[in-house]
Structures are given as structure tokens and as C-alpha cells.
Amino acid sequence: EVQLVESGGGLVQAGGSLRLSCAASGFAFDDYAIGWFRQAPGKEREGVSCISDSVSGLYYADSVKGRFTISKDNSKNTVYLQMNSLKPEDTAVYYCAASSIPYCSATTEVGGVRMLLPAEIHYWGQGTQVTVSS
User: Which of 4, 56, 80, 85 is deepest in the core (most CB within 10 A)?
Assistant: First the structure.
């Protein structure tokens, strides 16, 4: 059975830190891009960060660059998202996701770079709530 299990969410004050974990099983972890998405109430699900060893992929949304760090431990089939200097606007449900594509990003028609889209994800975790208070 394919599983992606998130943990580490919770309530933290602005400026604080959390580390999210995503434990994967049931698929070829090393061959997939593993990403973190988040969704706030009334908002679209957005890509936050992604890592892929197979194609040396790494992605951070502009809104989290310099504050979040993604890492991967293949021996534990686990991906982490270290979140520092948290802001209230980081409040959302955070989802771990896996794609066999396995690239983390793609170029856009206008020459930019986007993260994998939700439609390009093959496996999803159930999410963990992150709430950042002011």
C-alpha cells in the first residue's frame, strides 16, 4: 500500500520554527520527486517546495525562499521541510506529495519556472495543519 504520512504540524508563534516530516512507503521513493504543497481556506493548493534526487531537482516558492529548507533521507524514506521565521500567511494545511515524472519544476510559456502542479502528482498524504499566530 502506498502511503505518505505527514507529521510535525502544529501551532507556533510568528517567527518560530517547525519541522514537517513525510514518511513514504509502498513505492520507489528514490525515483520520485517529493514535494510539499499547502492550502489555506478559500485558496488554491500551491507548491511550496520539492526535491528530486534522480534528476537533481530542487524548488522553493518565492514566498518561502530563505526561510524553508527541504531535505531527504533515503535510508528512512522520509522528506523533511524545515520551516523557520514562520509568518501568519504560512498558515495552511501542508501536504506531502510524490510524482513519478520525476522533475520538480517546469518552464512556463513566458520563460518562468513553476513547481509540479497538483494534477501532476501521483500520491498524496492527508495533510498536517500548520497554524502561525501573530
Answer: 4
Going by the DSSP 8-state scheme, the letter that residue 31 receives in this structure is: G
Q: What is the 3-state secondary structure (H, E, C) of 72-96?
A: EEHHHCEEEEEECCCCHHHCEEEEE
Can you give the length of the chain in residues?
134
Q: How confident is the model at residue 132 (pLDDT cuts 50, 70, 90)?
A: very high
Please return the burial class of 131, using the count of CB atoms within 10 Å of its CB with bins 0-12, 13-18 and 19+.
middle
C-alpha cell belonging to residue 88: 501568519
Which amino acid is residue 90, in one-letter code?
D
Cβ atoms 33, 116 nearer than 8 A:
yes
pLDDT in tens, 47-84: 999 999 989 999 999 999 999 999 999 999 999 999 99
Stated as kind and residue range, the H or E segment containing 23 is strand 18-25
Whether 94 and 6 have beta carbons less than 8 Å apart is answered as yes
CB 123: neighbour CB atoms within 10 A? 17
Beta-strand relationship, 10-13 and 128-133: parallel
